[in-house]
User: Fold this.
Amino acid sequence: MAGKKKISRKELLKKPDEFITFTTRSLNWVKENSSIVIWVGSGIILLLILYFGYSTYRNRQEKLGHEKYFSSLEITDSDQKLKKLEEIIKDYPRTKAAYASRVTSGHLYYQKKDFSKAVIAYQSALHKGKFPTAFKNLILGNLAYAYEQKGDFPQAAKTFSEITQGQDDLLKEDSLLNLARVYQKMGKKAEAKTTYQNFLKLFPKSVYANMVKDRLAGL
Assistant:
C-alpha cells in the first residue's frame, strides 16, 4: 500500500490560508454590494429604534394610566367616577389601568343596578384583559351575578358552571351553590339536585353541607 504523499513546508506556505481567503471574499462581497449592506444595516437600526421607542412609550402609558386610575378612585360621585374610568379606557386602552377600569366600571354599574351595563363592562374586561385564573374567576362570578340580577338565568347558569368546571378551587364551592340556586329559579330540579349532590361530594365538610342536605330533601 502506497504511503500518503508528504507535503513539504514550502508547499504549505504557498497554499492560501482558508480564513484569509474567506475574509477577503467577504470583504469583496461587501464592497461590491455596499448599497444592500447599507439598507439592511439601516433597517436593523430602525427596528431597534422602533422597539426601544415603543417600549418607552408603553412604559409611559402604563405610568400615566396607573396615576389616573388611582386618582379616579378618590372621586366620590359614581357618575363622575364612571366618566373618568371611561376616559382611562379610551386614552390608555392596552394598559393594566384600562383592564382595572373595566372591572371597576362593572362594579359601579352593578351597584347602580344597571345590570345590562355591568354585564358589558365585565365581558369587556374578560375579553380585553389577561388575568390570572383566580382573578378571572372573580370577574366571572361578578358577571354571573349580573346576569342573574338581570333575569338572564341561562347565561348566569352557564357562567357559574364555567367556574365550577375549572381546575382552580377558588370560588368553586360558592359557584356550585349559586349554580344550583339558579337551576331552581329556572325550574330545573333535576339539574339542581345533581349540582347539590356534586357539592356534597366535593365539599363534604363545608359549613354549607347541612343547608345543602335540607335543600336536597326539599327537591
Observations:
- Confidence is low (pLDDT under 50) at residues 48-54.
- The domain at 133-219 is CATH 1.25.40.10 (Serine Threonine Protein Phosphatase 5, Tetratricopeptide repeat).
- The longest helix spans residues 34-72.
- The chain has two domains: 45-130, 133-219.
